[in-house]
Amino acid sequence: MAASEPSCGISWSLLAGIGRIESGHANGGATDAHGTAIRPIYGPALDGTLPGNEVIVQTSAGGQTSYARAMGPMQFLPGTWARYASDGDGDGVADPQNLYDSTLAAARYLCSGGPDLRDQSQVLSAILRYNNSMPYARNVLGWAEAYATGAAPVELPPLTEPAPPLADMHLENPQGIGPNLPLNIHGLPSTDPLAQMPLIDIGQPATESRPPLWPRQSLPREAPSCTVICIESRGQAPKQPP
């Protein structure tokens, strides 16, 4: 970006802040040696069931509707990726699930329109284009500053509130869907190969659905380690017979 769009002035720490909030850096760096997510990362289907999210239909064929979902470590919607797809690692493939590719695409997206991201007010505007939420923007800025300075962020607002509406920006410039939303594969057509793959599910507690590998054995119950003493009134001892 320093060579292709030097006037943008985007920093690596800003991109790191977004990556932190969008996917926790690909679920804590769960990538292969080439930087591609070991299991594809997808956002929730935008079918209107989550508060603040619009309904975005991706395909509708055979009476079945498939809804769009954000994808990859930087959480791009398909329309955004089609416009900003990038090959960040030079392997000849633009893959939204690859850290290098998706990060370069995010940089191109943030720099679109000719902003100067050395100006903090323009940085804020760019982040809000990525996700129109002030708590989200403050968290991104907080983590960007932390990465740049090495000091832990403090007093960041919670990201537990419902995600705000995306308005109509997805029609022209589709964007990531928001901070730390749960990720799943719901909404993919059953014929899609990805629908048959296990996916990373961020934000949801893991549950163990498989039976244990061995039968659970009950330990023998130990005898109580106490003594019962009975106290009662007794008469005089009987006399011995003559």
UniProtKB/TrEMBL annotation:
Record-level Gene Ontology MF annotations: peptidoglycan lytic transglycosylase activity
Coiled coil: none
Record-linked SUPFAM superfamilies: Lysozyme-like
Gene Ontology process terms (BP): peptidoglycan catabolic process
Name this protein carries in UniProt: Transglycosylase SLT domain-containing protein
Transglycosylase SLT domain location: 64-112
UniProt cross-references to Gene3D superfamilies, sorted A to Z: 1.10.530.10
One Pfam family recorded for the sequence: SLT_2
Highest taxon of the lineage: Bacteria
